[in-house]
Amino acid sequence: MPLSLLWDEYKVANPAGYRNSQYCKLYREFLGRVDCCMRQSYVAGEKLFVDYSGQTVPLTDPETGEIKPAQVFVAAGRQLLHLRRGHHDAVPAGLARFTRPHFPFLRRCPAIVVPDNLRSGVSKPCRYEQQLNPSYAELANHYGA
User: Fold this and answer.
1) Alpha carbons 75 and 101: distance in angstroms, whole number
2) From CA 59, how far away is CA 70, in angstroms rounded?
3) What pLDDT digit, counting tens, does each position of 47-92 carry?
4) What does pTM read for this prediction?
């Protein structure tokens, strides 16, 4: 979360409070004293976190010998990590990642699939409630996720 957003929220709650520079200074001092980590508790198999790794791997076309960069699709859950290469995260390719042939190790669809602002899955990112791509929303409804 950007520090500027934290300060904006602080100013709304405390209009006569610290100015931005003092708030940032005090916040950084606070971080130096606190061991920050985010713990998530959930039932195994309930959530599946999905995203592209950001880094690409070279993929060689066996027929032409041409080397193209390929995205790495990551699906992670409790006691589960799945990596799959792909050429892009366009909507059809992204949707195909959730169908049974691509995830044969999943015996059932998780109740919650959490995309991290996956461009093909999220039409409008939002801090509280992302607006899903309609195709992704239909897929989730189909699988009861």
Assistant:
1) 14
2) 6
3) 878 777 777 888 888 889 999 888 777 777 766 666 666 655 454 5
4) 0.51
Distance in angstroms (rounded) separating the CA atoms of residues 45 and 11: 40
Concatenated DSSP letters of 15-55: TTS--HHHHHHHHHHHHHHS---------TTTEEEEEEEEE
Dihedral sign, CA of 95, 100, 101, 106? positive
Query: Following DSSP, what letter does each residue of 96-108 receive, concatenated?
Result: HTTSTTT-TT-SS
Closest-CA residue to 73 (of 133, 115, 29, 31): 115
Domain range annotation of the chain:
3-33, 47-143
Angle between helices 3-13 and 20-33 (to 10 degrees): 110
Task: Output the CA angle 47-52-53, nearest 5 degrees.
Answer: 105
Q: Which residue has the tokens 């990112």?
A: 125
CA triplet 123, 124, 125: central angle to 5 degrees? Answer: 120
First to last CA, the chain: 27
